[in-house]
Amino acid sequence: MSRWILTIALAVALIAVGVWGYNQYLQNLEYRNYMENLYQKSFFELVGQIGDIETKLSKLMVSGDQSQSMVLLSDVWRQADAAQVNLGQLPLGHLSLIKTSKFINQLADYCYYLTKKVGRDQTISTEEMNNLQKLHNSCAQLNDELKLLVDNINSGGVKWGEIRRTKVKEQLDEQGENLIEQQFIRIERTSIDYPTLIYDGPFSETLQQRRDIRIQGEAIDQKKAKEIAVEFVGKDRVAKVEDAPQTTADIETWGVYIELKDGKGTIFVSVSKRGGKVVNMISDGEIKSAKLSLEEAQRRAERFLSQKGYKSMVPTYSQKFDGTLVINFAYKQDDIIVYPDLIKVKVSLEDGSIVGFDARNYLIAHKERDIEPPKLSLEEARKLVNPNLELKSEGLAIIPTESGGEKLCYEFKGEYGGDNFIVYIDANTGKEVNILKIIDTANGTLVI
Known about the structure:
By secondary structure, the protein is α+β, with helices and mostly antiparallel strands. The chain folds into 3 domains: 2-198, no CATH class; 208-365, no CATH class; 378-447, Nuclear Transport Factor 2, Chain: A, CATH 3.10.450. It contains 11 helices and 13 strands. Strands 1, 2, 3, 4, 5, 6, 7, 8, 9, 10, 11, 12 and 13 form a 13-stranded mixed beta sheet that branches. α1 runs antiparallel to α2 (66-88), α1 packs antiparallel against α4 and α4 (126-156) packs antiparallel against α6 (179-189). The protein is globular.
């Protein structure tokens, strides 16, 4: 009798498991269809926006009316902002979007700056028109590449959802199996000349050219990289860990994908193969609303850096975008700002979590420097600054040079004609080394 009861119980259990499994299958299928539609929508909106931006930039080249130019610039700015959002929603490897994302972001901010300028009844200079022409040419090339990708998708029948579910190869290369990922990597490697117009802080572009790597320590394997990545993100937050693409650029790294317990997306972490240092961290989680103040976000970033062992870091410049705040921190030694030792921290304005981290420049350049006293005093250097500049702050700073070296300068921040500037005077020779113009945009503070 008990045998029959046991058999019936097992049968009922199997049926229950089968029903549950089928329901799970339907839910997963429904979710996959939803995500596929979302990816399709984001991609084709991106293609349409880049095409529209190219058209409006070409109209700017021939517009002779100031009010019309302002309308076109404003449209490009808003379209580029929207394109950046759509680009970020695509399920692509972070390494295949770096240049494209930066270009769209620069385009948005530059057009916003020109919109404000034209709105003050100022004309666009010849140099600015040349910059717009370069932006148009780059946009036209990007548009052609995206159209080619549309043809590939339509002919190949590739589904966006398959990219996320496909196990990533050890290295991103053009021999990958997915047409979409291949084409975006090709776009990143193309000769499209994205002009350097907007910097995410003083000397950022110069820093990117450095190659004197200082990372030392023992070599680590992929397994150790995973342990370091999990510790960096926080063990209590981690649900699943997988291998991700490795890089062989100036800093060779292991890649790690971390799926979060709270369901807020996946985090990509790159760890240096030598020394086991976290080079960068990027989250693809969606940020629904901005609740935190910029001051609180900065405090969260400062606390995060301190917890990770990065001491004497001071915030220099910030940029707000799409529910996040990106803050540049520079190392400070003996009251001297050391710009080559740069770390970027990205904070979610929804809950204050750290969703981005980039220590590449810091890891390349950081060391304790033997800084000799400057030959010029602060008072002597101040006299060399144009008296038209109304000074707001002053101090010593180490800045990178185009040749890859470093220079000790006096940094003078001031205002002239309603605009803010930074003037750098060589602390030993008195030569004016550089002048940067600060632009306040809707997304934060930028320097050109």
